[in-house]
Amino acid sequence: MFTGIVEELGEITAVETLDDACRFRLRGPVVTEGARHGDSIAVNGVCLTVVAHEGDEFTADVMAETLNRSSLGALTTGSRVNLERPTAVGARLGGHIVQGHVDGTGEILERKPSEHWEIVKISLPADLARYVVEKGSITVDGISLTVVDAGPDFFTVSLIPTTLALTTLGIKQPGDPVNLEVDVIAKYVERLLGTQGGTR
Hints:
Layout: E1 8-17, E2 21-27, E3 40-43, E4 46-54, E5 57-63, H1 64-69, E6 80-84, E7 104-113, E8 118-123, E9 137-140, E10 143-150, E11 154-159, H2 161-166, E12 177-182, H3 184-193
Antiparallel strand pairs: 1-2, 1-6, 2-5, 3-4, 3-6, 4-5, 7-8, 7-12, 8-11, 9-10, 9-12, 10-11
């Protein structure tokens, strides 16, 4: 489990394309400290497994399902990525409960800068809109954010200077894809109430 509090802005140092998968080598001095084979690290909000580790770099395999469901397939050598290690039991939950299981992708639609923050408008797939509410939580590229406004096919978030400086949302522009993970609690509530094609 993650909390959506990005630990560092890492970098893709190599990409190996396989028949039905991809292998990334990533640089991240903070998240690789003490890393071991089999550990989990969230990359732009996607939970990946460390398969090799040397110095301040680690390697992770990404299967076709993940490439199809997320924006990781668009990454190339030199791409900057948000990195976060799993939260430790008993640690503070700084953001919200994040699984690292991406529900879909959105696209940066608009950026409106102001003196001390920036409003970013992001497209929202129709099948995820029911889980996104004003003042609720959403994960964008692995960043735990509060929804400012929720529309039928978009939502907005307000970004503070720290988020702009230390995450990919400070450099992404209109047209760029982002990974989205909705609040898992909303999905469980929906399932328990039988409101998705089921009966009460």
